[in-house]
């Protein structure tokens, strides 16, 4: 097939058209890439722009007088950039870090897998001592560097159950709040968690241009923002009192809650055995947590708000108050101590209300409640009990019992004040009478309350008829206390009815035969009441509640010492010491103090044998 | 006119009195100068790492020296009579063949290919000059008598002339330059090669793309379970091809039927063998990374994140340019080393990132204009030698442009090949100066030479 000259010359158009077509395809493609989509632009930004997060310093925790409770302390992560590591002596490095050769190799290859150019942690949260040991040797190992990262430090190692943990976020936290990234920390429990939003502050961002090796090459300042520090949280705790309370409770199991009656502010809050919260940070956390959680005394269990105990004799005062208010009895009502109905103790036969409280007379309060719940002569005993209990439950709940007291303290349990539904479920409707349920009249039976409830009860006594919901926070970032925490809650009993009860409580401490004699402090009019909570198979819990001074009370307190015996023996002197410490600023009665501090736990020999984590982060040797 | 030309022809000495400045194709020369200057600005930016420092020892400085050398070279080239190039074509060709053979033995290995002669800190790449020499040789060979493409012997010989240096370069191995030699198909097409060859080429390309795409997919087969989707494709190809063949046969006149059947069968069998061969070659002969490169090009997911690293970053750089770009020496992608080989093969990324759509379109159009200008030059020649040579120049420029820009914008596979006048490199710049300088001189003589 021969072609002539002109036909061949025409082929120039085909060749030219191909060139033009390719050019147009390229222009079209460039238009698509550069103008119509942002896909590549975003990708380029991801590659070249790095946002450095400037971590704000976390808000501090202070006590009611501004003393530092929880602060920020530096911790050190040993970082490695695998690419920069020359042929280093891994054996020597393993020795320096206190790791096995294989462990080190595993960690290095993990870092290499993450990125050869970006730093990743080789060892996390070294403390100052470990850091001091490492830093002079670091120059030998190119590619290794130190990154400081603040951790929380509980300055005195106290109130750890309240303060809570500040730990690395998990997947769930990151899903819930996009602000948290892998490796960030947040409050995971207690105050740290409750006020996370206020404490954490706002991070700043610094924009960098990085090169392909991830070195910072330039900054884009116009988009930068500075970090804003978190707000300080001022707690209601009194550092001195808290320290002293924890000291007194050492070697014991139980709880102490002290409240400022006029405000509902918690002055001291101890769940014993307590532990140093600093144990649960840094490299030692795992081991410490393990031994704490396995310890037979359950130190992680917050007894002050989660431990529910029968209120015992202390409850008799509530019965008295309600009966006075309802006119069921007067303060001069005498009732025969009829021990055929219910057991009693001590030598008394026919007490009035004051003596009955002092003697903790069981038949007296049995009868007081009986009178209260059978006021309808036209009804039978079943309906009388039903009707009476309905009324009674409502009155008792006014005292905060059976409620979470506003729920301002995480984990607070309501305890139990049984109502008609409760007994209906157990015995069936119209199958129970007062004889069935009478043990609640003396604070036993199904009644349950926490140490917090008991301290609040003391506050009610101190205020003569009202309380503010107990709480732990005075101020956040200078904004003051929310109004909700400044509302008086009236219990529905007139102030005048409290005087005979307070008389009795004063007698409990000041009378020669009073059960709370060991709470007596010269110069302070203390009112108190012992409770001895019976336990099946085990020794009684020693309980005491008190308020002081009687006029213009400063402190209301409850003390629980588990399995320690009578309330007057252990709980009363501890309460006395705390009252003395708080009101007089120091403790003069050194004999009483020495007895408490020197007490080897009388009834639980297991304690000495159980393993207890003793080392704290600041003294842990290098791993 | 004819009289005047004859006069010149009979009197060859007059060409020496050629008014070079008035005959020179200034449009083309200025286009080239513009490209070189733009290219140099981009090299400065690409090698400056954000702070432009004037340092003659750096790559931008070296390129400036090369630009000076090439300017002198260009003047020299223009001063030499065209007849010299024509008569020495064979010598050029033989020298280049010798150099190509020598570089395989004593060359320096750079990036896996033995393609450089090292001379101090400068290197010389003979394959850059092979293009010019082959263009001269083919032009000479095909213009010896009036109608050269007639005999089978001439056809085979001219193909061999192209294949020989291409084969030597393939041994280096330098796939990009070999691809450029493929561009000679346009030259041959202009000189008489059947258009069916081009069609066949396009069909083969379509077939290859389908083979690769379906070859990478997974499909279910009766009795054999899961396997590559290619085998379904082969079945479909056979069935459809056979159907098309029978239809065509039925539609042709009875006396042509036998021929249709034969050619149709040959085509069908040929395409099936081609496709199968390609598939098996992809699976069993190519290395894993080579296969991944091809898969990346076709948008097939590759397990290895490094496989498309270069092209991903190149595309990100270009795509981030937007309408007008980030400004000269202000592109972080190129400044901070995200784009590999950014002053040589990936120089177009700098254009895209810093000059945006407007700038990169401008560069693309400048290249299209240059190639079309060369084609225009080719067609205005009376000398067959110059026409063939000009076609070769246009084809070489076109292939470089096609493969290089196509690669960085993700339309062609990643094959290292410089962008003419833009990419950093003395050999490349000198090679293209030679190519165009000779063309300019030959074109300037177009009224004096009739050959």
User: Any idea what the shape of chain B is?
Assistant: globular
Structural class of chain B: mainly alpha
Of all chain pairs, the largest interface belongs to: A-B, 41 and 52 residues
The CATH superfamily name of the domain at 302-562 in chain A is DD-peptidase/beta-lactamase superfamily
Number of structural units classed as domains of chain B: 2
| Rg value of chain B | 25 Å
Q: What strand order characterises the main sheet of chain B?
A: 1-2-3
Radius of gyration of chain A using CA atoms only: 35 Å
Biggest pleated-sheet summary of chain A: 6 strands, mixed
The global form of chain A is elongated
State the helical fraction of chain B: 55-70%
First-last Cα distance of chain B: 16 Å
Beta fraction of chain A: 15-25%
Poorly predicted runs of 5 or more residues of chain B: 1-15
According to DSSP, the number of beta strands of chain B is 5
Structural class given helices, strands, pairing of chain A? alpha+beta
CATH class bucket of the domain at 302-562 in chain A: Alpha Beta
- Uncertain segments of chain A: 614-623
Number of strands of chain A: 20
CATH topology call of the domain at 302-562 in chain A: Beta-lactamase
| Approximate helicity band of chain A | 25-40%
Describe the 3D structure.
The complex is a heterodimer of chains A (623) and B (451). By secondary structure, chain A is an alpha+beta fold. Chain A contains 24 helices and 20 strands. Chain A has a domain at 302-562: DD-peptidase/beta-lactamase superfamily (Beta-lactamase, 3-Layer(aba) Sandwich), CATH 3.40.710. Chain A is 36% helix and 17% strand. In chain A, strands 2, 3, 4, 5, 10 and 16 form a 6-stranded mixed β-sheet that branches. In chain A, a hairpin with a 5-residue loop joins strand 8 and strand 9. The longest helix of chain A has 26 residues, at 11-36. Chain B is mostly helical and 451 residues long. Helix content of chain B is 68%, strand content 5%. Chain B is built from 19 helices and 5 strands. In chain B, the strands form 2 sheets. Chain B has a 3-stranded antiparallel β-sheet, with helices on one face. In chain B, strands 4-5 form a two-stranded antiparallel sheet. In chain B, a hairpin with a 2-residue loop joins strand 1 (108-110) and strand 2. In chain B, helix 3 (26-48) runs antiparallel to helix 17 (347-379) and helix 7 (126-142) runs parallel beside helix 19. The longest helix of chain B is centred in the C-terminal third of the chain and has 33 residues, at 347-379. Chain B is globular. Mean pLDDT of chain B is 83; it is low at 1-15. Chains A and B meet through helix 2 and helix 3 of A and helix 10, helix 15, helix 16, helix 17 and helix 18 of B.
């Amino acid at each position: 097939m021969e072609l002539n000259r002109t036909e061949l010359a025409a082929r120039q158009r085909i060749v030219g058209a191909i060139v033009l077509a390719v050019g147009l395809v390229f222009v079209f493609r460039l238009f698509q890439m550069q103008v119509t989509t942002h896909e590549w632009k975003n990708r380029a930004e991801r590659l070249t722009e790095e946002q450095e997060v400037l971590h704000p310093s976390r808000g501090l925790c202070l006590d009611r007088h501004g003393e530092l409770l929880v602060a920020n302390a530096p911790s050190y992560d040993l970082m490695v950039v695998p690419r920069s590591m020359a042929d280093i002596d891994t054996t020597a490095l393993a020795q320096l870090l206190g790791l096995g050769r294989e462990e080190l190799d595993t960690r290095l290859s993990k870092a290499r897998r993450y990125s050869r150019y970006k730093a990743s942690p080789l060892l996390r949260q070294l403390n100052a001592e470990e850091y001091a040991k490492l830093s002079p040797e670091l120059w030998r190992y190119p590619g290794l560097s130190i990154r400081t990262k603040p951790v929380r430090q509980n300055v005195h190692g106290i109130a750890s159950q309240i303060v809570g943990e500040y730990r690395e976020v998990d997947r769930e936290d990151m899903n819930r709040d996009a602000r948290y990234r892998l490796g960030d920390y947040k409050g995971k429990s207690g105050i740290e968690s409750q006020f996370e939003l206020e404490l954490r502050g706002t991070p700043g961002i610094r924009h960098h241009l990085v090169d392909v090796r991830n070195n910072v090459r330039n900054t884009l300042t116009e988009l930068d923002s500075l970090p804003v520090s978190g707000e300080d949280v001022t707690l209601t705790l009194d550092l001195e009192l808290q320290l002293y309370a924890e000291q007194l409770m050492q070697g014991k199991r139980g709880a102490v809650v002290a409240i400022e009656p006029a405000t509902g502010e918690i002055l001291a809050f101890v769940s014993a055995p307590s532990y140093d919260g600093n144990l649960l940070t840094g490299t030692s956390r795992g081991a410490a947590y393990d031994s704490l959680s396995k310890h037979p005394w359950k130190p992680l269990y917050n007894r002050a708000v989660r431990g529910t105990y029968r209120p015992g004799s202390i409850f008799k005062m509530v019965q008295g108050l309600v009966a006075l208010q309802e006119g069921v009895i007067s303060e001069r009502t005498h009732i025969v101590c009829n021990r055929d109905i219910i057991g009693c103790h001590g030598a008394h036969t026919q007490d009035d209300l004051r003596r009955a409280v002092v003697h903790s007379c069981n038949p007296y309060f049995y009868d007081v409640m009986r009178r209260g719940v059978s006021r309808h002569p036209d009804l039978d005993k079943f309906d009388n009990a039903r009707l009476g209990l309905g009324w009674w439950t409502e009155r008792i709940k006014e005292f905060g019992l059976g409620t979470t007291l506003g729920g301002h303290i995480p984990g607070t349990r309501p305890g139990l004040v049984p109502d008609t539904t409760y007994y209906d479920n157990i015995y069936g409707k119209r199958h129970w009478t007062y004889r069935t349920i009478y043990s609640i009249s003396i604070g036993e039976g199904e009644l349950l309350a926490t140490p917090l409830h008991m301290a609040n009860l003391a506050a009610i006594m101190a205020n003569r008829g009202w309380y503010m919901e107990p709480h732990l926070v005075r101020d956040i970032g200078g904004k003051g206390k929310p109004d909700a925490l400044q509302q008086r809650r009236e219990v529905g009993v007139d102030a005048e009815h409290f005087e005979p009860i307070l008389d009795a409580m004063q007698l409990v401490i000041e009378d020669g035969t009073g059960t709370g004699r060991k709470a007596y402090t010269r110069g302070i009019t203390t009112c108190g009441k012992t409770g001895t909570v019976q336990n099946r198979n085990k020794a009684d819990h020693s309980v005491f509640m008190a308020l002081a001074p009687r006029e213009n009370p400063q402190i209301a307190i409850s003390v629980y010492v588990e399995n320690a015996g009578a309330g007057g023996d252990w709980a009363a002197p501890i309460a006395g010491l705390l009252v003395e410490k708080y009101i007089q600023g120091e403790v003069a009665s050194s004999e009483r103090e020495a007895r408490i501090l020197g007490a080897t736990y009388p009834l639980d020999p297991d304690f000495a044998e159980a393993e207890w984590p003793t080392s704290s982060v600041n003294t842990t040797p290098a791993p | 006119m004819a009289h005047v030309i004859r006069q010149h022809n009979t009197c060859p000495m007059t060409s020496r009195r050629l008014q070079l400045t008035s005959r020179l194709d200034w449009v083309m020369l200025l286009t080239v100068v513009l490209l070189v200057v733009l290219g140099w600005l981009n090299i400065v930016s690409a090698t400056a790492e954000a702070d432009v420092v004037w340092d003659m020892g750096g790559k931008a400085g070296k390129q400036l020296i090369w630009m000076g050398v090439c300017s002198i070279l260009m003047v020299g080239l223009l001063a030499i009579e065209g007849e010299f190039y024509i008569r020495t074509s064979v010598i050029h060709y033989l020298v280049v063949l010798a150099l190509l053979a020598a570089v395989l033995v004593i060359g320096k290995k750079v990036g896996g290919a033995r393609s450089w002669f090292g001379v101090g800190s400068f290197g010389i790449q003979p394959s850059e000059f092979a293009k010019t020499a082959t263009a001269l040789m083919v032009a000479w060979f095909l213009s010896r008598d009036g109608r050269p493409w007639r005999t089978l012997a001439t056809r085979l010989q001219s193909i061999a002339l192209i294949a020989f240096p291409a084969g030597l370069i393939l041994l280096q191995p330098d796939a990009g330059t070999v691809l450029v030699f493929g561009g000679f198909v346009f030259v041959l097409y202009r000189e008489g090669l059947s258009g069916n060859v081009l069609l066949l080429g396009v069909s083969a390309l379509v077939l290859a793309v389908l083979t690769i795409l379906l070859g990478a997919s997974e499909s279910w087969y009766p009795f054999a379970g899961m396997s590559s989707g290619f085998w379904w494709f082969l079945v479909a190809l056979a069935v459809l091809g056979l159907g098309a063949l029978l239809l065509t046969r039925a539609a042709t006149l009875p006396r042509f039927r036998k021929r249709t059947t034969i050619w149709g069968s040959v085509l069908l069998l040929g395409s099936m063998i081609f496709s199968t061969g390609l598939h098996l070659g992809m699976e069993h002969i190519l290395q894993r990374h080579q296969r991944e490169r091809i898969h990346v090009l076709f948008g097939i997911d590759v397990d290895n994140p490094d496989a498309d690293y270069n092209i991903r970053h190149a595309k990100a750089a270009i795509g981030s340019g937007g309408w007008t770009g980030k400004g000269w020496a202000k592109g972080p992608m190129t400044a901070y080393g995200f784009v590999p080989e950014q002053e040589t093969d990936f120089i177009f990324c700098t254009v895209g990132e810093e000059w945006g759509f407007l700038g990169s379109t401008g560069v693309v159009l400048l290249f299209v204009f240059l190639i079309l200008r060369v084609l225009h030059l080719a067609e205005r020649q009376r000398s067959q030698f110059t026409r063939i040579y000009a076609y070769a120049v246009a084809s070489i420029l076109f292939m470089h442009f096609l493969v290089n820009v196509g690669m960085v914008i993700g339309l062609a596979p990643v094959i290292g090949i410089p962008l003419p006048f833009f990419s950093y490199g003395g050999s490349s710049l000198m090679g293209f100066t030679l190519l165009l300088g000779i063309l300019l001189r030959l074109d300037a003589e177009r009224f004096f030479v009739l050959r």
